[in-house]
Each structure stands twice: as C-alpha cells, then as structure tokens.
Sequence to fold (554 residues):
Amino acid sequence: MSSKIFKAILLIAFSTLLGTLLIITVCMFDYFGTVQKNQLVGELSIAARGTEVAGKDFLNQLDLKNYRITWVAKDGTVLFDNEINPANMENHADREEIKEAFEHGTGSSSRYSKTLTKKTVYEAVRLTDGTVLRISAGRITVFVLLLSMIQPILIVSIFVVILSAVLGKRMAKRIVEPLNRLDLDNPLENDTYEELSPLLRCIQGQQREIQRTLACLKQKRDEFNQITGNMRESLILLDNAGAIITINLSAKKLFRVTDTCIGRNIIEVDRHQNIRDFMQKSMENGHAEFRENRNGREYQFDLSRIVSDDAVVGTVILAFDITEQAEAERGRREFTANVSHELKTPLQGIIGYTDLMESGLAKSEDIPRFVGYIKKEASRLVTLIEDIIRLSQLDEGTDMPVSEVSLGHLADEVCKTLFDAAKSKNISLSWSGADGNMYGVKRLLYEIVYNLCDNAITYNRSGGSVKITVSEDDKNVRLEVADTGIGIPAEHQERVFERFYRVDKSHSKQSGGTGLGLSIVKHAVAYHHGKIALESEPNKGTVITVAFPKKSLV
Ligand code: ADP
Fold:
C-alpha cells in the first residue's frame, strides 16, 4: 500500500516538476532572447558611434570575446570581421539583417550561421557613410539553459523523492489504520471516513446474505439428519476419495462405529472385503449390490456412484435389513419345490396305473384295485390342492367374512364328521365345555378344529381317545385337543408347523396327510390374533391348545 501511494505521489510530483520546468524553460528562453537582443543593440550602437569616428582602427582595438563584429561596405563587401579574415568572406549584401539595414537603417535576424556553425542572432545598423555595421552572438540553446539548471533540478528531484516516501508512508498509515480497526461483524457501526460507507454497506449486505444462506444450509442439514436419523435403512455418504461425509444412526449401529468415523475412509472403518470390492465395482459401473450377514441378520448393500457435472463426487451406500424378506424368499422357494414334489408323486402313481391298464398288461381282476389306487391318489391331489389354496389365501391375508361363531358347536360338528373315522380306528372322540362364542371366520375356525382332531385320530393308537375341551373367560376362548397317541418327539415339536414337515413321512402319506394341516392351523390362528401351544410326549400323547381373543376381528 505505502509503495503504491509513494509511486503515485512521485509520479504526480515529477509530472508537475516536468511541466513547471517546461514552462520555466520556455519563459527563460524567451526572456534571455530579449535580453541578448537588447545587449546586442546597445553594443552595436556604441560600436557604430566609434566606427563613425575612427573607422577600422576603432574596430581593431575593440576587445570582443562574446560578440562578432562585421563591417560591410555599400556593395556588400566585408570590410572588417573580428573573427575571420574579410578577404576570405563572401559578399554579405544578401544577408537578411544587412539588406534590411541598407533599406531601413536597422535590421535584425536570427539563423544558423555556416561560418560559426551555430544558431546566431544578428543586429545591423547603417552608418552615415552608407556602410552597415553588424554585431552577432550565438543564441543561447534550450539544452544549455537546462544544463545550467541541472543542479537545482537534481536537488528538487531528491527532495521530491524523499517527500514522496515520507508522505506515502504517512498517507498509507492514515488510510490503512482505520481499515485495520474496522469491526467487520458490525460494518455499519464503524466510525470511519465517508468513502468507506459504500464498501461497508456492501459488506453488511453480503454478511446478511451469508447468514441467510448459512441458516438455510443448517435447516437443510438438520432436515436431512432428521430424515436419515429416523430411517431404518443404513445410509452412508462418501466423498470421491471414499471418506465418510455422513453416516446415520442405523449405519453406525450396523458398522459398530461412532461419529469419530466421519472423515475417515470407509475401507479403514469397515474391513470387510465385500465393501472394498463392491466400492470398486460401483465406481466402474455406477451401481453395485451384494448381500451379507452382519450381527446375526442378513443385509442387502446397495452402492451407487454420485456424478455431478460429469465428475464423480462420491458414493452412497444404503443397507437394508432383509432377514425376514430373505427368509420368506427361502420359504417360498422351498414351498414351490415341495409343492412340485408333492404333486408329482401322486401323479406319477396315477400315470403308472393307467399305463399298465392301457398296455393290457394288467389282469382284469386287478383293474378294480388299480382304479381304487387312482381314485385314492386323485383325491390326495385334490386335498393337497385345496390345502395349498387355503394356505395361499391365508398368506395373502385377504379379508374373509367375520361372524359370531360358537367354538363348542364347531367341536360338536367336527366330532360328528369324524365319528366314523375314529370308530374305525377304535378311538373314542368327545367334546365338552362351554359354548365358546367369539367373532371369527367360521370356515377357518372349523379348519382349525377339524385338522387338530383329524391329526389326533390319525396319529393315535387303537383304543386311544381324543378329547376336545372348549373353555372361555371374559376375553378369550380356549380350545384344547388332547389325544393319547404316538406323541411328537421334542426335537420335532417346533417344526411340525412348517409346511410339508412330517415326523414320519410314510405314516403321514399312508393316512392321506398333506403335511400342510398344522401349517394351515398356525396361519388360521394367527389370522384371529390367537396363540397356539403344543405339549407332547412320545407314546403318551399330544395336547394342542389354542387361545383366541373373543373380539379381535370385530
Ligand atoms: P399331515 O398332513 O402329515 O398330518 P400336519 O401338518 O397336520 O401334516 O402335521 C405335521 C406332522 O406333525 C405330521 O406328519 C405328524 O408327524 C405330526 N403330528 C401332527 N399332529 C400330531 C399328533 N396329534 N400326534 C402326533 N404327531 C402329530
């Protein structure tokens, strides 16, 4: 700053100095010209008077150092010259000042003298005898004039430099000091020079703008944190070098990290090879995804490259807990495979018997037996398909008609339906207890009672019993089906509710079981928001209890 001010002052001072010098030189040059002319005229007048009286002798005795005197005859012949031999001089009649003096008595001119080889001033006067006396002197030049002033110019220049440096420093201090004292947090409260007001107003405006923008950014960041903080999905934003910019609560739990991981590279924070590999893939392809088990649950990781203005600015990692979904997928796959298998077996049996009959290999007395097999397998297929349809209806959770149902009446109905089946196996079947009125889907409740009783008969022994008990209190209705059958070993008890799970496959199939009965029961109970419990001891029997809230479906 001081150096700039110094330079500016120096420039102004030197420009002024140069201008002044120019004017002074012009004035002085003019002044010295007039003085010289007057001196020449004075000297010429003295010399003219002397020449009038003593002629050449007067001129010869003159001690002339600064002037040149030339005496010219009427015809222009040079009679005398104090610097050059007149014999060597040409005729001077055509010289401007001499011509003028011949004509008007006096003459003057100024020109470059070939003789003296310099700019010369001439003054001439005609004497009484008609001759002309001329005096001349070298004209003072601008260069000489300047040369004569060199010393004062130098002194003034040095003075100007010193003065400019001192003034520059002082002015810079005076300008800068108030600037240094400025309170930029409150620009308009500064008491400083007026010229700064527009700047301070501008700063104030910009400050307001910055504050507004910051508040807006903060609000947006808070909103973002609020949204991502409450997300169940894990979210991590990385910059283009892989450093963590943002990580939400769910992701912190998943990766078992705290806020200190912000700014660190994801590869350092999470040492799993998959993250490293799929980061690379997402950088190359724009997107990558993988599944991985973490903390005992299954997660899907989605990695997407973020591009802005054709440049990669970062990566976003989203992780979803897909444990239930994956289990459901697995279940569906297993179910499809089981369904295919279960459908295929009876169909193969049917095709086998029909092939035998068609080829004529079957004896005519065997044909009724084969038809019986075919009928049995076909009805197994129908039962299986009906069970699958029921299960898929329950899976879809479609609304079914709800009405007031008496569980006691249903138990009675089931007893009547299964009476023959129980009797054929020498099993006593009975029900007792309350009406057990509740709101529910009659068809589903019937299925529950029927399947439980059917199993209790199927997996029983000759001479055994099946007892159905219905009880109720203010809130719940309970159904208990107890048998004295083969029982279920402890390790199978959890799994008998799975689709197509059978403890003894051959026994189940022989008795026409589909392996879906208890699965349907479980879903139908869940549909009514009920609870199911199983107690069983091998060779002693099984007790299955179901508790329904009376008004859960109202
Ligand atoms: P299934 O059509 O084979 O009877 P379920 O789903 O009804 O299929 O039953 C699954 C398996 O549970 C049966 O195969 C059987 O092994 C066992 N099970 C069910 N109920 C009883 C019971 N009361 N006593 C003993 N085992 C049973």
